[in-house]
Structures are given as structure tokens and as C-alpha cells.
């Protein structure tokens, strides 16, 4: 949960922007019309990624043995084979790469962190962008930079992810990859997706669906994500979650395209009841239109779709 002191830090940080920046400069001014996302699209494209992202919060032992209780059962007990499980749940968030028999794909999932922790990483001494690692991202342009804390976290697991995805594609003779993650894990997953797209053959189909993502880098990074992943990247934002609003745009950060926004989850079953697709970048009709002052930190955890919430407590095993 977000501690009051972290919230105050963030608000202090944002205060000058609120005072000095005209409201219309807060974003790109994109108010393109949103469209409703159907339940069929949610069921086909978003539920399974959410279920994989939730499992990244389970203990490594439970993921390795694929006996993590309800979160594993939601995917089908016998259909998923973990290929590598790693991370320490701290400096290196947990992650796993697995074969998903149901979709005949290789799935990469990254654990996130609670909102106070993701906000403190963002608000850290390591706050500033750094140029992207050109070993991992061989054809990124020279102006591309990402948040230093996210870049370092991604680099710690990048080689393992890349080599396991490559061997998994070959062992299982499949040609599809799904990349997912929540919160800090969403930022890492987005970077993984760009890295994998640059390094895997074009015959490999890739899809990336992330949840509760902070802004990961500058405009050149957003351009790179759009150009590399195009329509196969979706970032899902839940109601008044503050995390997608940070780091702020006045520091040069911007989300790529691909937002899908959950407006309401007002039934007792934890399903989304109103979900919209948001054209362009930083659409004012979606999370960019939210105010940090009116944000709800519990919205960061979900529930996203099909009663999937993301935190350690949603996978105690
Ligand atoms: C994989 O799915 C097929 C059906 O699509 C099923 O026959 C087979 O038992 C499954 N394998 C595992 C390991 O679950
Ligand atoms: C990089 O940024 C500089 C300064 O803003 C700009 O002049 C240049 O065109 C940019 N290069 C690319 C490849 O975007
Ligand atoms: C870039 O990533 C590679 C592979 O993870 C790592 O060995 C190298 O130290 C990184 N470079 C920088 C400058 O961080
Ligand atoms: C791998 O899959 C392709 C396409 O699905 C198929 O044509 C090929 O025979 C498979 N190779 C092996 C070794 O199973
Ligand atoms: C999205 O994925 C599909 C299937 O792999 C591919 O045909 C399409 O070119 C991809 N779109 C972009 C913009 O990469
Ligand atoms: C939704 O999930 C929570 C755990 O995250 C659980 O306690 C609750 O019973 C679930 N609700 C329904 C309607 O399944
Ligand atoms: C979509 O699912 C939600 C949640 O279960 C439900 O409230 C809504 O009525 C459904 N919409 C349609 C058009 O079936
Ligand atoms: C909630 O979503 C799940 C999975 O998408 C579905 O099985 C269930 O019927 C939904 N519940 C309601 C009340 O719509
Ligand atoms: C579809 C939709 O919600 N459109 C709104 C987007 O935002 C603009 C400006 O705030 C409104 O005028 C639209 O009605």
C-alpha cells in the first residue's frame, strides 16, 4: 500500500508542474474518442495474461512445481510447464518463462511490486532517464532513454529471458510469445518485448499485455515501442490507479500507444463492467485524465479482469 509519506513526496514533486504548467500542456491534448472493449475481447486477449501476471507474485517454489493454488488452477493445472523461474522478490522481482500448452506459446511474466515500492523506485536518486543499453537493444535510436531503475531491473534478467525464450520456441516447436507483467513488472515486460522483437526472427508472433504500468521512458522510447510492437502492445489501466501517471510528463516521460482503460468493476464478481480502448498516446479520456490528487492506490492492485488482483496476498503460496 502507498504510505502517506510517499504520497506526500510525489505530490511535492508534482506541485511545481501543477502551478507552472498550463493545463493544456499537461498532456499531448489527445482527446480522441474511445471505444468500448467487448467481453469477448477481454476473455480472449486479456484474462489469460492477467492470470499469468498474478502468478509472478507466487513463491518461486510454488511456480516451479506449478502448485500455486487458485492462481495456477485458473490457467489449468496441467497445461503450463515452467522453463525458468527466478528473481528474489526484492531487488530482482520474480519472473518466469513457461510453455503454455493451451495457446501453444512461450509466456514471459514479471512480478511487480506494491505501489509504495514502485513509487519509491521512481522517486529514487536514480530518478533520471539513462540512455538505453545498446547491447540488449541493438537497434534503438540514440535518443532513446528509459527510467534508470527500470532499465537496471530489466538488464538483470534480460539474458536469461532471451535465451530461455529462444530455447523454449525451439524445444516446443512453437512460434508465439506472450509477455506480461504488473506494475514495475509491466515496465520490465515492455522492455523485454522490445528487446525480444529486435532479437527474435520475424516469423515469431509476439503479443504484449501489461497491467498498471508506470511511464517507462522518454518520447523516443515511446516512439520505439510503437514502431517495434505496434498494435501488438496493450497496457491496461485500472480506474484511478496513480502509477500510470508517474513519472510525470513534465519530466519528459510519455506512455506509448495501446492503452485499454477499465472504467468500472462494479459487479460483485470482480469482473470489469466497463472497459474502453484509448486511441493515441496519453488519451485524456483514459488514465491521463485522472488526477493524482484523486487517485486510489488500491486500484493499482485490481481487480483487473475475472477477479484477478495482483499482489503478494493474491498468491500466498
Ligand atoms: C496439451 O493439450 C492437449 C490438447 O490440446 C492435450 O491432449 C495434452 O494432454 C496437453 N498436454 C499437457 C501436458 O497438458
Ligand atoms: C535526437 O534529439 C536531437 C535533439 O533533440 C534531435 O535534433 C535529433 O533529431 C534526434 N534524433 C533522432 C534520431 O530522433
Ligand atoms: C547492458 O546489458 C548487458 C547484458 O545484460 C550487461 O552485461 C551490461 O553491463 C549492460 N551495460 C550497461 C552499460 O549497463
Ligand atoms: C514444427 O512445426 C511446424 C509448423 O507447425 C511443422 O511444420 C514441423 O513439422 C514441426 N517440426 C517438428 C520437428 O515437429
Ligand atoms: C502484430 O502481430 C501480427 C501477428 O504476428 C503481425 O502480423 C503484425 O505485423 C504485428 N504488428 C506489428 C505492428 O508489429
Ligand atoms: C475474488 O478474489 C478474491 C481474492 O483476490 C477472493 O477473496 C474473492 O472471494 C473473489 N471473489 C469472487 C466473487 O470470486
Ligand atoms: C460484460 O461482462 C460484465 C461483467 O461480467 C457484465 O457486467 C456485462 O453485462 C457484460 N456485457 C455484455 C454486453 O454482456
Ligand atoms: C466473470 O468473469 C469470468 C471469467 O471471464 C466469467 O467466467 C464469469 O461468468 C464472470 N461473471 C459474471 C457475473 O459475469
Ligand atoms: C468518447 C469520449 O469519452 N469522448 C470524450 C473525450 O474527451 C473529450 C474532451 O475531454 C470529450 O469532449 C469527449 O466527449
CATH secondary-structure class: Alpha Beta
* Average predicted confidence as pLDDT: 88
Largest sheet: 9 strands, mixed
State the secondary-structure class.
alpha/beta
Give the helix proportion (percent range).
Answer: 25-40%
Q: State the CATH superfamily name.
A: Alpha/Beta hydrolase fold, catalytic domain
Low-confidence stretches: 15-26
Pfam families: Lipase_3
Domain Fungal lipase-type: 107-249
GO molecular function, one term: hydrolase activity
Catalytic activity: a monoacylglycerol + H2O = glycerol + a fatty acid + H(+); a diacylglycerol + H2O = a monoacylglycerol + a fatty acid + H(+)
Features:
317 residues, alpha/beta, Rossmann fold, nine-stranded mixed beta sheet, two-stranded antiparallel ribbon, 8 helices, 18% strand, binds 2-acetamido-2-deoxy-beta-D-glucopyranose
Overview of the molecule:
The chain has one domain: Rossmann fold (3-Layer(aba) Sandwich). It starts with a helix and ends in a 39-residue tail after the last strand. The chain has eight helices and eleven strands. It is α/β, with parallel strands linked by helices and 317 residues long. The strands form two sheets. It has a nine-stranded mixed sheet, sandwiched between helices. A two-stranded antiparallel sheet has the order 5-6. Strand 3 and strand 4 form a beta hairpin. One 2-acetamido-2-deoxy-beta-D-glucopyranose (NAG) binds next to loops. One 2-acetamido-2-deoxy-beta-D-glucopyranose is lined by residues 133, 135-136, 155, 158-159.
Amino acid at each position: 500500500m502507498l504510505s502517506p509519506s510517499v504520497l506526500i513526496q510525489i505530490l511535492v514533486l508534482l506541485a511545481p508542474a501543477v502551478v507552472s504548467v498550463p493545463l493544456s500542456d499537461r498532456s499531448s491534448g489527445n482527446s480522441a474518442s474511445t471505444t468500448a472493449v467487448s467481453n469477448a475481447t477481454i476473455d480472449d486477449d486479456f484474462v489469460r495474461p492477467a492470470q499469468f501476471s498474478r502468478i509472478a507474485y507466487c513463491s518461486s517454489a510454488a511456480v516451479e512445481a506449478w502448485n500455486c493454488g487458485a492462481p495456477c488452477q485458473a490457467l489449468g493445472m496441467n497445461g503450463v510447464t515452467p522453463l525458468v523461474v527466478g528473481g528474489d522478490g526484492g531487488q530482482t522481482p520474480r519472473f518466469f518463462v513457461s510453455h503454455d500448452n493451451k495457446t501453444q506459446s512461450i509466456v514471459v511474466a514479471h512480478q511487480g511490486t506494491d505501489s509504495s515500492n514502485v513509487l519509491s523506485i521512481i522517486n529514487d536518486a536514480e530518478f533520471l532517464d539513462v540512455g538505453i543499453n545498446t547491447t540488449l537493444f541493438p537497434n534503438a535510436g540514440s535518443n532513446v532513454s528509459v527510467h534508470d531503475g527500470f532499465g537496471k531491473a530489466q538488464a538483470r534478467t534480460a539474458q536469461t529471458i532471451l535465451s530461455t525464450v529462444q530455447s523454449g520456441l525451439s524445444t516446443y516447436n512453437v512460434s508465439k510469445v506472450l509477455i506480461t507483467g504488473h506494475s514495475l513488472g509491466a515496465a520490465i515486460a515492455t522492455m523485454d518485448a522490445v528487446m525480444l522483437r529486435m532479437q527474435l526472427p520475424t516469423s515469431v508472433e509476439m503479443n504484449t499485455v501489461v497491467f498498471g504500468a508506470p511511464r517507462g521512458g522518454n518520447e523516443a522510447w515511446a516512439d520505439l515501442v510503437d514502431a517495434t510492437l505496434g498494435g501488438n502492445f496493450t497496457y491496461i489501466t485500472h480506474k484511478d490507479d496513480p502509477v500510470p501517471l508517474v513519472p510525470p510528463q513534465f519530466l519528459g516521460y510519455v506512455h506509448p500507444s495501446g492503452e485499454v482503460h477499465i472504467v468500472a468493476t462494479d459487479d460483485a464478481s470482480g469482473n470489469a463492467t466497463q472497459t474502453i480502448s484509448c486511441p493515441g498516446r496519453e488519451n485524456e479520456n483514459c488514465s491521463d485524465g485522472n488526477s493524482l490528487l484523486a487517485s486510489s492506490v488500491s486500484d493499482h492492485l485490481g481487480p483487473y479482469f475475472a477477479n484477478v488482483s495482483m499482489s503478494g496476498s493474491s498468491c500466498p503460496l
